[in-house]
Amino acid sequence: MSNKHLFLKPGFVRAPLQNGVGRYVQQLQRIVLKFCKTHGGSRGMRDYIEQDLVDFAKQNPGVVVYLKPRRHRSPVVVAEYLNGDRVWMSMHNKSQSEVTKWIEVLRTQQGDVSGTRLRKFQYTDHPSIQGPWSPFTFKNPELNTAKLPDPKFGANNRLPMSATEQLRIMFEKQRLNEKDLKTGE
C-alpha cells in the first residue's frame, strides 16, 4: 500500500451550498485563456477565441473570462472555482472543437475533486446517529448461518401463483376432462 494519500489535501466531496436544492450556483468563477498570437500550437485556442468565446461569455454571465496573450508559450486554460480550487489544463495542439469540449468540462465541474483525500464516503448536513443505511441493515441475523436455499427465508412461498403456473394447471384440468370424456363414451 502506498502513502500517496498523505500528500493530498483532505476534504469532503459534496455539492457546495446544497447546490440544486434551492437554486443552481455555478461553481466556475473565473477562467483564464493563455495563448500565443503566432505559435502554431495555439491555433485551436485562437480559433476558439475568435468564434466561440463571445457566445460562451453571453451564456455564462457569472464567469469572468480573461485573455492573456504570451509570446512563444503553449496555450493553457486556468479555471478557478468558488471553493478555491484552480485547475490548470494544457491546450497544446488541440483543435477548436477539443478546446470547446474541455472548457465545457471545466465549466460544469466543481473543482479538482480528484486531488482530494476523502475523509468520509458519505456527508450530510443532518447526520443520523444510527449510521448509514445499507441493504443489510434490517435483515434477519439468522440468514448469516442458514443453509440456502431455505423455504423459511425464500420469498417464493409468500408470492401468489404466477400466470404461467395458472395456465399449466388449467391445461392439466382440461386434458384430464378430455380423457374422462373419451373413456366415458
Automatic annotation (TrEMBL):
Record flagged with keyword Transmembrane helix: no
Domain of life of the organism encoding this protein: Eukaryota
GO-annotated cellular components: mitochondrial large ribosomal subunit
One GO term of the biological process aspect: mitochondrial translation
SUPFAM superfamilies, per database record: Thioredoxin-like
Entries under InterPro entries matching the protein: Ribosomal_mL43, Ribosomal_mL43/mS25/NADH_DH, Thioredoxin-like_sf
Keyword annotations from UniProtKB, A to Z: Mitochondrion, Ribonucleoprotein, Ribosomal protein
Location of the Ribosomal protein/NADH dehydrogenase domain: 37-110
SMART domains: L51_S25_CI-B8
Places the protein is found: Mitochondrion
GO molecular function: structural constituent of ribosome
Broad class of where this protein is predominantly found: mitochondrion
Similarity comment text for this entry: Belongs to the mitochondrion-specific ribosomal protein mL43 family.
Protein name: Large ribosomal subunit protein mL43
Taxon lineage: Eukaryota, Metazoa, Ecdysozoa, Arthropoda, Hexapoda
Gene: LOC113510164
